[in-house]
Amino acid sequence: MVAQILADFLVKRPEGYYCKYGDFFVDPLSPVSRALVSHAHADHASPGHGEIYCTPPTAAFMRYRYSRQPFGSFREFHYHQPFQVGGVTIHFMPAGHILGSAQLVMAYNGIRYLYTGDYKLQADDTCEPLEAVQADVLITESTFAHPQVTHPDPVAEISKINGKPHHVLLGSYALGKAQRLTSLLNKHCPERRVLVHHGILPIHQLYASMGIKHLRYEPYNRKEMKTQTAHHIYLVPPMAFNSYFRATNVIRVFASGWKHLQHHNDMELYISDHVDWKDILHYIAQVNPREIWTIHGDGRHLADHYSGQIMVKTLG
Which spans of this chain does the record mark as coiled coil (predicted)? Predict the structure, then answer.
């Protein structure tokens, strides 16, 4: 007899996604007594929880980013290390999104529920590569789950900078994306020096402390950005990027998969840390789920695509 999938195993609440069978929340944004956190980006990780279950890198990033805010206790687990929360057996799997990002494999009453968090299939030597596992239910992000969305090759995208004989003001999210961009620039724009904003520098250093030691960069130097004999990359977080809207003698570029973040810049740079449509379909084939539950986006196109084959529902 095939075990029954529980439709209410994970439900959307104001605080986040709740599992009553283990009495825990997944990626809650409001304080809860017990939180499982997939990765340290602010739209998934927040302070104030009683207990936080996550990977060691996620704990390190959260301690740094929320050092002045209240925390309970961290329960740190490495990938593939099983642990029990309530009646649910859980282990983390690499998600390929940023360093320490995890998928949650949750087993209960013979059913395996796989929560992806944010994930990507593209190569990235600054984080652990995605690992696939078969599951009865795939709970997948659907940020770019649209048949018209195809992420271009990141090497081709970053190499476009080589053709720009100017300094480049490169906007990037500080955690994950900035480290990936630094590595891509080192490899594919080797003549360019990478200068790093003070808001990104500590995270580069945290990455180095956790084994990502191959990045070549320097702290921002105002004098270097004024030289005319060489052209550098100044890597800045979003708020700094927006404050430099009147910057002269630089090319303004923002690295993102979102089209609206390319508007009003001097060049488009589509580098995303999320799966696109083809990658989602590829991953679904690997997981081979009986059901698909979508989060963080629009799952309607997946529902249409798998109509009559796999049940697809949206958790919100």
Answer: none
Determine the distance from the C-alpha atom of residue 44 to the mean position of all C-alpha atoms in its chain, rounded to a whole number: 9
Q: Does residue 225 register a pLDDT over 80?
A: no
pLDDT digits (tens, 9 = 90+) for 127-181: 999 999 999 999 999 999 999 999 999 999 999 999 888 899 999 999 999 999 9
Q: What is the pLDDT, as a whole number, of residue 53?
A: 98
User: How large is the average pLDDT for residues 296-302?
Assistant: 94
Confidence at residue 83, expressed as pLDDT on a 0 to 100 scale: 98
* Predicted pLDDT at 206: 98
Structural domains of the chain in order of their starting residue, each with its CATH number: 11-147+274-314 (3.60.15.10), 154-269 (3.40.50.10890)
